[in-house]
Design goal:
Blueprint lengths: L27 H28 L5 H33 L4
Keywords: Bacterial flagellum, Cell projection, Cilium, Flagellum
GO molecular function, one term: structural molecule activity
Protein name: Flagellar hook-basal body complex protein FliE
Length: about 100
């Protein structure tokens, strides 16, 4: 027996990243904190969906896949950014005055 494929259900819980105004003066530490919190929120959302899948509450497996992909991309970008910051700090610390 062939089951009908369900309709696409919109993902209301996925956050859409909006471009912020470039005119604002943003403190670097605030920017970094915000990025870390966003990555943490994405990871928590992924874990929440995983628990729902385990308990049988999650109806759409693709929602978990998308959340997992978003969390992984955000974490990779943050890790790469932090690595670049550390490299820049090391290079600056080697400069003799």
């Amino acid at each position: 027996m062939v089951n009908k494929v369900s309709d696409i259900i919109p993902l209301n819980d996925i956050k859409i990243i909006k471009k912020e105004e470039t005119n604002k003066d943003i403190n670097f530490s605030d920017f970094l904190k915000k990025a870390i919190y966003e990555v943490n929120d994405a990871k928590k959302y992924q874990e929440e969906l995983t628990q729902k899948l385990i308990s049988g509450e999650l109806e759409n497996l693709h929602e978990l896949s998308i959340a997992r992909g978003i969390a992984n991309v955000q974490f990779s970008a943050l890790s790469e950014g932090i690595s670049k910051i550390v490299d820049a700090y090391k290079e600056i610390s080697r400069i003799q005055i």
